[in-house]
Amino acid sequence: MTFHSAILAILLALPVNVHETHHETSSAHLARMGQLASIIEHVANRAACYHRSKCRPIVGDRLHAAAILLAQGESESGFRADVQLGECPATECDWGRARGPWQIWQWPSVPVREWLAYAGADAAGVELGAWRALAVWAGGERRGTGCGYAQLAGMPGACSLDAGGGRRWARRTSLERRYLARLRRKELER
């Protein structure tokens, strides 16, 4: 099974989120999940410098990078079409402050135009959001296990020992490990 197929299998196994407001046909859903699998594959390969020379990885291996994006996306948006397209109901997506499947907040260092592109039908913009999610996660994770998810949530202090360490992000870390194990099994099947 290819890396892309393994990611797509995980995405297609997710249940349709009950909060989904953008109803898509099964063929449209399959196409969108295929696009997301391609985005995750490309960003994971880039993050791990897979088949690239003169590159500094931000995540140790591409399977791990894909597992992080899958865990973050499932936890934040359930990979809902309305969230990916930037059509969140007013009270969702952190009251309009987060964009795309990985629910990235606008950081001062990121131009508003780029941040707005994180959600939409344009694969390049969604890919920018996936890259930003991994970069933010990697920056937080350098401070300690679980801090990557705290950093993504805009709560870097939440991973300090006084705040309970990485326990607050245990569900995401558990999903990440589960997805990593699935991807590794699929890699062995090749």
List the helices and strands and how they pair.
Blueprint: H1 3-13, H2 26-47, H3 62-76, H4 81-84, H5 93-96, E1 98-99, E2 104-105, H6 112-117, H7 123-141, H8 147-152, H9 170-189
Antiparallel strand pairs: 1-2
Structural notes for this entry:
This protein has 190 residues and is mainly α. It has one domain (3-189). Helix content is 56%, strand content 2%. The model is unreliable at 161-165 (pLDDT under 50).
Task: Write a brief structural summary.
The chain has 190 residues and is mainly alpha-helical. The protein has one domain (3-189). It contains nine helices and two strands, in the order αααααββαααα.
Range of helix content = 55-70%
Estimated share of beta-strand residues: under 5%
Number of strands: 2
- Physical arrangement of strands within the biggest beta sheet: 1-2
Q: End-to-end distance, in Å?
A: 5 Å
Overall mean pLDDT score?
88
Q: Main sheet?
A: 2 strands, antiparallel
List the secondary-structure elements in sequence, H or E: HHHHHEEHHHH
Which radius of gyration do the C-alpha atoms yield?
16 Å
Helix/strand class: mainly alpha
Q: What's the shape?
A: globular
Number of helices: 9
Indicate the low-confidence ranges by residue numbers: 161-165
